[in-house]
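Please describe what follows:
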Amino acid sequence: MYAPEEAHSWIVYADGSYIATRMLWFVSCQLESSILAQRTVELYLKAYLRSKGVAIRPGSEGWGHRLMMLNEACSVHSLDFSVKSFSRRVGFFDRYFELVRYPSNLDGLRNGLLFFSLF
């Protein structure tokens, strides 16, 4: 059962989102997978914040969908979230939230800028 006040619930929710993200990627639904990846990162960040006692409700530092803002809130509790390479990777996924709201702006798909590479 989903209990938003429990950090473990957020982790279970994020794990399910991660599995769905991977499944979409492996069946060549890269755009859908990328959009869901943004949500997955958001859920894991919120799970961490909840584990530190941060409420996930309107007006709290754990509320919202902007990954860089959530990452910044996490960095208050651990400097690991402040590592530049980590923050850069988290920020990369912010662009997919815009696609959920504004799917007409798909210019990044044409030049490959919307797909993340570890290399």
